[in-house]
Amino acid sequence: MWLPLPDKGNQNDAPDWLYHKDVIAKAHNPLFAGLPVKLMSPEFYGGLLGNTSYFQDVTLPADTAAVAIYSSLTDHYHFIDGVMLGSYAFHAGHFTLNAFNIAGSIGSPATDRLLLNLVATAQADAAPLAPLPSDYDAEMDKFGFTDPPPATPTQAK
Length: 157
Known about the structure:
By secondary structure, the chain is an alpha+beta fold. 17% of the residues lie in helices and 25% in strands. It contains 3 helices and 7 strands, in the order βββαββββαα. The strands form 2 sheets. Strands 3-2-5-6-7 form a 5-stranded antiparallel sheet, with no helix packed on it. Strands 1-4 form a two-stranded antiparallel ribbon. The longest helix is centred in the C-terminal third of the chain and has 16 residues, at 109-124.
């Protein structure tokens, strides 16, 4: 995964057709304002939860809004958990990691409210652009981000 995090973990795509994961939304988180929290019921959240993955063994976010808990199909005493929605501080700003199916469920009340809450939260703490740190290129190299190779000009015949 292309994340500027020390522990990138992995994206767990365990199937959700019969034995599904349970998703828990953190109470009092502005991303879930106006929405039911704690155990996110498929009856209310519908397509927002359907066929979604979660981020396992990733560096924990500074602000975790929702997590997934999945019972292993091969070992019923083994539970796997991961981040569904969380925000990470990054230099002068932050970025949000999201596993919910927002694009695939636009038009449902739960999805639309979550999307509006995401936008409102981003607007609430927006700040003017700040200069990049002097060691930014080295930091990006450390995370495995590299610049694309320069384009080669087409030679005229």
